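=== RUN LOG ===
request id: a7f3
mode: sequence -> structure
chains: 1
length: 141
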Amino acid sequence: MKLESKVVDSWAMVAWIQQEPAAPLVRQFLYEADAGKVQLFMSAINVGETFYILAKRRSVSIAEEFLERLPSLPIHVVVPDADGIIAAARIKAEYAVAYGDSFAIALAQAEDASVITGDGEIQQSGLVSVDWVGSQPSVAG
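=== RESULT ===
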C-alpha cells in the first residue's frame, strides 16, 4: 500500500518554526510522517524560501538553525530537475500564484500529493488538494 503523500510549503514550515497558530497542525503532520503514516515532501525552492523568510522576519541565525535541523525532520527534500522547473514555470505563467508556490504545486502534482498550507493562493488555484492549516478558511478575493 502506497503511503499518502503531502507537500509542506514554506507557509506551513515558517508557521511551525515561529510557533504561529498553525504550528500544532503542522506538528501533527510531522508526527504522522515520523510514525510512517504519511510521506512528506518539500521542494528545495521552498526550503530556500523558508530560509529567506526566517532571515528577514527573525534573524539569519534562526534561518541557519532551520537548515541545520531540516535533515532530522521526516521530510524528503526534492531538488527540481529541468522538467520540474518548467512545470512550475507553466503554473506561474497561467495562475495567480507566487513563484515559490508554483514549485510546491508542481511537486504535489508530480507526487500525487496534497499541499499543507495556509496560503490562500495555493488553495484558490484549484490545482491541488490542500490540507488547510491557516487560522480560518481562505476566502477568494
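=== NOTES ===
Helices lie at 10-17, 23-34, 44-57, 60-69, 82-94, 99-111, 120-125.
The radius of gyration is 14 Å.
=== END ===
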